[in-house]
Amino acid sequence: MAVTVETLEKLERKITLTLPVGVIQTEVDSRLRKLARTVKMDGFRPGKVPMNVVAQRYGYSVHYEVMNDKVGEAFSQAANEAKLRVAGQPKISENETAPEGQVAFDAIFEVFPEVKIADLAGAEVEKLTADVTDEAIDKTIEILRKQRRTFAQRAQDTAAQDTDRVTVDFEGKIDGEPFAGGKASDFQFILGDGQMLKEFEDATRGMKSGESKTFPLAFPADYHGKDVAGKTADFLVTLKKLEAANLPEVDGALAKSLGIADGTVEALRADIRKNLEREVKHRLLARNKQAAMDALVAKAELDLPKSSVQAELDRMVESARADLKQRGIKDADKAPIPDDIFRPQAERRVRLGLVVAELVRSNDLAAKPEQIKAHVEELAASYEKPADVIRWYYGDNRRMAEVEAVVIENNVTEYILSKVKVTDKSVSFDELMGQN
């Protein structure tokens, strides 16, 4: 059939669909006869309900279903014949100008845009590099030692110092009145670890067991407790117990406790280096991938389908509600979350998705089976039983789809970096990891 497509604005299109009334009624009658064979009604045996009774009870709903199905089929056929790539669901409304014996509907919908990508040779990308140094390994060992430290009680007249674990009672008041969360008994923290606000640690440092002290504490304006943020409280703290930290030696015993089979410090350092190099690789890949994608989007020209953006907004709002629910927020599913706060991010995701899809299509960057296999094996390599992890991935189509998406992103990143002007920039391990 000839399909007339009307352009409304940018990506919006309209098709008028016509359906013969007789075809619709024939399908309605067929479905009602099929329903009559199984329907149950009081006063009738199964399969013996008269057709007129079945039609009276179920005719409207069956007619509605048939209309939906037939209009959907007609729209799909029309879109295919017109070679349209439809974005989102069409909005269907009845058209009153149908010829005799026909019913007509207007389908208004959006199509995916034409994506134009300018020459990437004019783009610049800063590509990060980083190395795992001996200093990074030393810091990691210190973290592992702290995780396994033990504590022994100090003498009564010893002053509290950094690395000590202190047990305190405290009570805070603002303008002489207690406030929520401002009082605790037998509260433990380690001096110098930043668990408490600086003023609290400064006040506790130098105290001895059994001592009490009153001191002012100014809560930061951006403090997470909104009731006290920006206010000054007077705290009374009593030091009840003082314990010194004992860190394990860096020796074979520590290595064995960390799962190093031959129990040597050299093997421990090698294992840490291997793990850190894997983490560095992943972080560099993520940072460089982001830079490459930014360069790609900057070189792309396209209109965004409103329906695709709205679908992404709906997903993001739903995800935000699920997060609130997981945190125990009451009535999280009804929380008023304006989607405009997510709009810039949603528009970027849609834009990036369309641009990447075009780049993949036009440059044969789809994930190949051997690439997917290699990526799964790399993911599994860090586990104790890689074969089990590989089976776990291959046993679920959704997980494999996620792997395929990552491989495609990697292919796109490599392609972009092969076309743009790349400037290498070396960053320190701490900078890459976001440490001070």
Would you kindly provide a written description of the structure presented here, covering whatever features stand out?
The protein folds into three domains: 107 residues, Alpha-Beta Plaits, CATH 3.30.70.1050; 97 residues, Chitinase A, domain 3; 160 residues, Trigger factor, C-terminal domain (Trigger factor, domain 2). Helix 3 crosses helix 6 and helix 9 packs across helix 10. The protein is of the alpha+beta class and 436 residues long. The strands form four sheets. Strands 7, 8, 9, 10 and 11 form a five-stranded antiparallel sheet that branches. The chain has a four-stranded antiparallel sheet with strand order 1-2-4-3. A two-stranded antiparallel ribbon has the order 5-12. The protein is built from twelve helices and 13 strands.
**Low-pLDDT residue spans:** none
Major sheet summary line: 5 strands, antiparallel
CATH class of the largest domain: Mainly Alpha
Structure class: alpha+beta
Overall, the morphology is elongated
What's the N-to-C terminus distance?
68 Å
What fraction, in percent, of the residue positions are helical?
Answer: 40-55%
Q: What is the count of β-strands?
A: 13
**CATH topology-level fold name of the largest domain:** Trigger factor, domain 2
Total count of domains: 3
Number of helices: 12
Under the CATH scheme, the architecture of the largest domain is Orthogonal Bundle
Q: Nearest-angstrom radius of gyration?
A: 33 Å
CATH superfamily of the largest domain: Trigger factor, C-terminal domain
Q: What is the element string, with H for helices and E for strands?
A: EEHHEEEEHEEEHEEHHEHHHHHEH
Percentage beta strand: 15-25%
